[in-house]
Amino acid sequence: MAYELPPLPYAFDALEPHIDAKTMEIHHDKHHAAYVNNANGALEKHPELAKKSVEDLLRGISSVPEDVRNVLRNNAGGHSNHSIFWTIMAPHGGGAPSGRLGDAIKSTFGSYDTLKEQLQKAGVGQFGSGWAWLLADSGGKLSVKSYPNQDSPYMENLTPIFGVDVWEHAYYLKYQNKRADYIAAWFNTLNWKAIEARYH
After folding, report:
1. Which of 7, 46, 163, 191 has the smallest count of CB within 10 Å of its CB?
2. 8 CA to centre of own chain
3. Is 5 helix (H, G, I), strand (E, B) or coil?
């Protein structure tokens, strides 16, 4: 088995009231688990790919054999995206970034509030399912971009620093069709210590 479902680093109810326990349970134990299982099923057909990290596999997605390329784009992408997502949230999160990341955000966007506005706009504006990310290029330059479905920033040689899942399964039980309300609440879960480590 190339990939394993990482344990959730906190209890299902740890992010309440911003994200409810039932959503976290289904999202992690059902949706993320399905991405892992589907990706591993595809990798069985090409065991040489299983030797690569998920990040390297996604960076080279265009060279993945065509018979499993879309399956791995969707499911290895989903595994990578969610593995990051769980770690960039924490109980008693939120606030504003500091240190080198805080300085880089201020330098790039003018303020953290401006970055929040851009991420909110990218997340709300993503048609259908997808993600909105703060990204860094190889030189460390920051940008905001949304991606459809489980497409990964790694496929464009960009590093995801933190991002919000805007698939309906991430918020519909609590927020129904109010995606903007969900994203606004999600900012209160951000684990800046982990995000800063990702930026470094």
Report:
1. 7
2. 14
3. coil
pLDDT digits (tens, 9 = 90+) for 85-130: 999 999 999 999 999 999 999 999 999 999 999 999 999 999 999 9
Domain boundaries, the chain: 21-87, 99-199
The full DSSP string for 50-110 is: GGS-HHHHHHTGGGS-HHHHHHHHHHHHHHHHHHHHHHTB-TT--S---HHHHHHHHHHHS
pLDDT digits (tens, 9 = 90+) for 148-193: 999 999 999 999 999 999 999 999 999 999 999 999 999 999 999 9
Domain covering 99-199: architecture? 3-Layer(bab) Sandwich (3.55)
With beta carbons less than 8 A apart as the criterion, state whether 153 and 85 touch: no
| pTM exceeds 0.85 for this model | yes
